[in-house]
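Consider the tokenized backbone below.
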């Protein structure tokens, strides 16, 4: 059986790259994408020039402009970015039916295993795709080739904002060992802070710990991060058009209720379950949707973007609570709640201790990590927060 060959294409700072195709005068200038006229506007995307000045996704716009005073601010154009993604996908499909759009922000995975007789070596395919994207679309993607999606993602992180990287089978551990832990897909803010307390700074440092030792720090997620640290990732590249993965959890109320405290207790339990499922898969949610079913059969739904993407329980709950405010506009009792996390992707890699964006505060992150450890050892119902004690037994 041939070795897996996964190509990762990454158009760095995708929204800015698309805007520069539309307006070439923006090239070389610091650019910030944000809804400038909106209250509490936050950064949607930024150019490499603005990044070097300290601008990060999710940063309040006012603070971003104080860090980068000469930045050009543009409103987001999601329809424009969707068209660009479709055009990029169309360029990739002739090379493989297994082309996965990852997050919709300039990332594509292609599985070209066994296609050498048709299209040549994987690195040649990646280079042709880059050349065609430049010529036809004006976009210049970074590319990598590796035996897995995880390693391909790591490789493009290493050469961003411009470059290419090929990782052969068997090189995973040697490539990963010297890297800072935040570059490992799946490491979120709370993991990084906790591991730093124990002076674990590099991916290779995890190898000095046994699975049992690491479980005392990270709970049930330890085995997933250990596998990632060794470059183990059997996840397939989904075929083009396949339904993207989501994490969905729901709760049927024993008695219909319009008591806010009771409904929020249910919402907290759903956020806990969704966060645990995301962290177990080393993924973060870029969007959260809440669906309410009322006792008279009327359904209401609202969704909110998470920038940056998150798997943290407290941030998920705050997003869900905001969605609840938007969706619950009637006095009719609620019968059923469903929480859906989608636009799943590897958590963003940041080396500044995650301080620039709206990450969870250290105390919240430490609490989530402690709860994961206890539940990983003694079961999901071993410990519960007071705000969830109003609930009847856990729903499926």
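A designed sequence for it:
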């Amino acid at each position: 059986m041939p070795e897996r060959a996964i190509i990762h294409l990454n158009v760095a700072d995708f929204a800015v790259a698309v805007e520069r195709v539309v307006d070439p005068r923006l090239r070389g200038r610091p650019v910030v994408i944000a809804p400038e006229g909106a209250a509490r506007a936050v950064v949607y995307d930024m150019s490499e020039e603005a990044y070097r000045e300290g601008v990060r996704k999710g940063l309040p716009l006012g603070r971003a402009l104080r860090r980068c005073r000469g930045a050009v601010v543009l409103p987001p154009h999601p329809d424009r970015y969707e068209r660009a993604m479709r055009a990029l996908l169309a360029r990739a499909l002739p090379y493989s039916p297994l082309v996965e759009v990852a997050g919709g922000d300039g990332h594509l995975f292609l599985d070209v295993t066994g296609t050498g007789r048709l299209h040549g070596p994987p690195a040649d395919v990646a280079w042709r795709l880059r050349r065609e994207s430049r010529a036809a679309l004006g976009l210049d993607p970074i590319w990598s080739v590796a035996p897995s999606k995880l390693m391909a993602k790591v490789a493009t992180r290493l050469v961003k904002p411009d470059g290419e990287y090929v990782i052969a089978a068997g090189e995973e551990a040697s490539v990963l060992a010297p890297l800072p832990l935040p570059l490992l897909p799946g490491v979120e803010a709370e993991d990084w802070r906790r591991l730093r307390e124990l002076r674990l700074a590099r991916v290779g440092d995890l190898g000095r710990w046994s699975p049992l030792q690491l479980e005392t720090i990270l709970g049930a997620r330890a085995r997933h991060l250990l596998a990632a640290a060794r470059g183990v990732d059997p996840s397939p590249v989904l075929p083009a058009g396949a339904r993207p993965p989501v994490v969905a959890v729901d709760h049927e109320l024993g008695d219909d209720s319009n008591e806010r405290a009771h409904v929020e207790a249910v919402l907290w339990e759903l956020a806990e379950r969704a966060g645990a499922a995301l962290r177990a898969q080393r993924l973060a949610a870029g969007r959260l949707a809440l669906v309410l079913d009322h006792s008279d059969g009327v359904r209401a739904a609202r969704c909110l973007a998470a920038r940056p993407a998150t798997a943290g329980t407290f941030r998920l709950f705050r997003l869900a609570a905001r969605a609840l405010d938007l969706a619950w506009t009637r006095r009719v009792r609620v019968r059923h709640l469903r929480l859906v996390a989608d636009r799943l992707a590897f958590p963003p890699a940041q080396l500044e201790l995650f301080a620039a964006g709206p990450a969870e505060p250290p105390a919240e992150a430490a609490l989530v990590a402690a709860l994961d450890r206890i539940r990983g050892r003694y079961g999901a119902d071993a410990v519960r927060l007071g705000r969830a004690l109003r609930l009847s037994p856990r729903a499926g």
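The mean pLDDT is 85.
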